[in-house]
Amino acid sequence: MKKINIAIDGYSSCGKSTLAKAMAEKLHYIYVDSGAMYRAVTLYFLENKVDLEDDAAVADALDRIDIRFERGPEGIETYLNGRSVESEIREMRVSSMVSPVAAISKVRRAMVRQQQKMGEQRGVVMDGRDIGTVVFPDAELKIFLTADPAERARRRYEELKAKGSSASMEEIKSNLLERDHIDSNREDSPLRQAVDAVVIDNTHLTQEGQLKLALELAESRI
Ligand code: C5P
After folding, report:
1. Which ranges in 80-148 belong to alpha helices (H)?
2. With a 6 A CB cut-off, is 12 part of the ligand 1 pocket?
3. SS percent in the chain: helix, strand, coil, step 5
4. Distance between CA 169 and CA 189 in Å, rounded?
5. Which of 29, 80, 197, 216 is placed for a possible disulfide with 24 were both Cys, Cβ 3.0 to 4.6 Å?
6. What is the DSSP string of 34-62?
7. CB-CB contact of 147 with 202 (8 Å)
8. pTM exceeding the 0.90 threshold for the entire prediction
């Protein structure tokens, strides 16, 4: 059967990765969380005190970063230079730094190159902010997910609480809105809905309902 690439973009905490993972599983495709790559770079920058304003230091750091995904007991895990960073990259200290890091063109160029490589054979579901516009402009299916900001903050809060985080609802909501603002207004590949994307507002949809809708869209293109 023909394999396609599926791009899922949208604002922070719209459930992009939940949908992308479920689609990849049903279709037996590879799932790529592009946000995890920007988060891993951010963790490296924090741990190595890389000055975001220093072009040479940023380039040098990017040369030293190796990001991979491997399947662990709890699902796909992100590895930074051989070490699993899956939970660390979800912490608030990374969330509050990731958008400024992801706005740096050098960082974007390095990540986009790797992401495009992963999609060369097709059969990839990738979620992020610029997948349908920049990474896979030729993706056969592009979905732009949206959801009400209060609902997004509530979902993120429940998710982080379940992982033992003490972040407050207010803190989470303001981080989401701030990231959306930076991501939508940066100069290099801002978050935009691709002209040929299908918009799904999942505020009132169940995960099953959303998955069914998305799979029907995929099947119509395979
Ligand atoms: O998807 P997630 O919320 O984990 O992404 C974290 C951050 O990474 C986003 O807020 C955005 O700044 C950046 N990002 C990006 N381009 C992507 C994916 C994520 O700029 N394709």
Report:
1. 92-102, 105-118
2. yes
3. 50, 20, 30
4. 29
5. 29
6. HHHHHHHHHHHHHHTT--TT-HHHHHHHH
7. yes
8. yes
From the CA of 191, how far away is ligand 1's center (Å)? 9
pLDDT digits (tens, 9 = 90+) for 131-181: 999 999 999 999 999 999 999 999 999 988 988 888 899 999 999 999 999
What pairs with residue 19 in β-bridges? none
E strands, the chain, where?
Answer: 5-10, 30-33, 67-72, 75-80, 83-84, 124-128, 141-146, 198-201
The ipTM assigned to this model is 0.99
Ligand 1 site, residue 39, Cβ cutoff 6 A: yes
Whether 34 lines ligand 1, by a CB cut-off of 6 Å, is: yes
Euclidean distance between CA atoms 199 and 84, whole angstroms: 34
Closest CA to 96 of 25, 42, 32: 42
